[in-house]
Amino acid sequence: MSAARLVAPAVAIRPFEPHDLALTMDVWSRACEASHPFLDRGFLQQARRVLRDGLASGNTLVYDDDGIKGFIRISASSLDAIFVDPAHQRRGIGTQLLEQSRQDADELTLAVFVENQGAILFYHRHGFYVLQRRLYPPAGRDVLVMRWERP
Amino acid sequence: MRIRPSTPADLDAIAAVINDAARAYRGVIPADRWHEPYMPRHELESEIASGVSFWVAEEEGRLLGVMGIQDKGEVALVRHAYVPTARQRGGVGTRLLRHVQGLVDKPILIGTWADASWAIAFYRRNGFDVVPDDERNRLLRTYWSIPERQVETSVVLARAAQRA
């Protein structure tokens, strides 16, 4: 056991606070640009507004490690968003956000664009399976509806 | 026997089931389409990334069979359905097929090798029919990503009542 364990962690997963807005939107923009190059500008602007308004309503956890590196939004049994800054991906941030936010959930459903294969594999690694594919009219593209149930 | 969605921990076992069962293809399907292992693990992951969900039949911790289902919008495809040769004729495939049929509310299409007579007989017993060649060609080119050469040597099965 190292002495470092006794020090309060610098990294915190904590609820979103209003002053996190700008950094959280920056994470979303960078992550979206990297993972959703197929989406058109009009849809992205609309999605940005929806997210900005939604952040104020709660249900968001941020990963704060000397700045916001990622966030997750879960409402009822719906995983609405999980984004990690591309510069900090593949370090377990998404996994920590998902595990912490679903610790009291028995099931979660989400929709992911069929083109976003990296995310589909991430969700599969965390126990989600595909329920169906359907058109997501706001983007004019197909999504996979994926579901996780507590084993 | 329990049917459940696959997890990443199952991938090696799924690949083993597929590769065991697919040995029956050797000398049956066109030689240029046969390779071993028939389904390497990385191909399995790439199928999952493309939206194939694998369901497994399990008994006492052992995998008895696997069946993928891929929703393509208007139709859903049964993909990579395998029961190890030694476990065939035991109802595993039928349980898996009924399970995935219960998941989707759209026509289900199944593609397999024209020479895999045992597989075609299995789907026929479960209410599927081979579609005519011209319809097969159209369906394979629309919903599958396979080489043109494989189109001629494949069949597509659909439920008669659900024929698109």
Overview of this structure, please?
The complex is a heterodimer of chains A (151) and B (164). Helix content of chain A is 32%, strand content 32%. Chain A is an alpha+beta fold and 151 residues long. Chain A has a 4-stranded antiparallel sheet with strand order 1-2-3-4, sandwiched between helices. In chain A, strands 5-7-6 form a 3-stranded antiparallel sheet, covered by helices on one side. Chain B has a 7-stranded mixed sheet with strand order 1-2-3-4-5-7-6, sandwiched between helices. Chain B has helices at residues 11-21, 41-49, 92-103, 117-125, 133-143, 148-152, and strands spanning 2-5, 53-59, 62-71, 76-82, 108-113, 128-130, 154-159. The A-B interface holds A 114, 117-118, 120-121, 124-125, 127, 129-135, 142, 144 and B 5-8, 45, 48-53, 69-73, 103-104.
Q: Any descriptors?
A:
heterodimer; A: 151 residues; alpha+beta; 4-stranded antiparallel beta sheet; 3-stranded antiparallel beta sheet; 4 helices; globular; B: 164 residues; 7-stranded mixed beta sheet; 6 helices; 7 strands; 35% helix
Short description:
Chain A has 151 residues and is of the alpha+beta class. Chain A has helices spanning 21-35, 41-55, 93-101, 117-125; strands at 12-15, 60-64, 68-75, 78-84, 107-113, 129-136, 141-149.
Described by the principal axes of the CA atoms, the overall outline of chain B is: globular
Largest sheet of chain A: 4 strands, antiparallel
Number of helices of chain A: 4
Mean pLDDT of chain A: 91
Question: In terms of per-residue confidence, which ranges of chain A show pLDDT below 50 for 5 or more consecutive residues?
Answer: none
Helix content of chain B: 25-40%
Number of helices of chain B: 6
- Report helical residue fraction of chain A: 25-40%
Radius of gyration of chain B: 15 Å
State the secondary-structure class of chain A.
Answer: alpha+beta
Shape assignment of chain A: globular
Number of separate strands of chain A:
7
Overall pLDDT score of chain B: 92
Rg calc of chain A: 16 Å
- Helix and strand string of chain B, N-terminal first? EHHEEEHEHEHHE
